[in-house]
Write a structure and sequence with these properties.
SPX_dom, SPX_prot, mainly alpha, about 75% helix, SPX domain-containing protein
Length: about 180
Amino acid sequence: MKFGRLLKTTSLDLPEMEALFSVYKSLKKQVKRLPFKDQLGQQGTLETLSEEEANFVEALSDTLHQLNEMFLEKEENSVIRVERLEHELAAATAPEQLNALHKDFVDFHGEVLLLVHWSILAYTATVKILKKHHKRTGLLVKAPQLGDLLSQPFCSTELMTSIAHRVEEDIQRLAEPEQHVVTL
């Protein structure tokens, strides 16, 4: 299955992925507007590409900024939410409270894993776009954010993975038999 189709079907199932699919589709259209590398050779100069290339680099930079903003906001919300859930867990005593918290932790764990999945797809989409650009033009994109793509916040899943592990431990504690928690 082609990556664009995979991203599209994923975005249909998970609305959180819709923005990522839109960004990928938009950048792919911009790459298709760039001249082929053999056309560049026939024209003899790169000046014809400069405006189109500048537009692509600007769109790519905006996209990276947008992806980082989305990821950082979701990451911050996840940190706040795990702290709140763990605080509620520490204060909970009644079985009904513990059952409700168990459900909340399981739901939150799924959301965290979706965010990690989103991050991986965003990284893959960026790499695919860069590969398409290079294949079409033979040029490397000169965008400052690409100096080290892996250092982009949306490419880092370390914090979200550690939150997922924390939540898994909390779910295990809630599921222990001495807690008398009925799992859902």
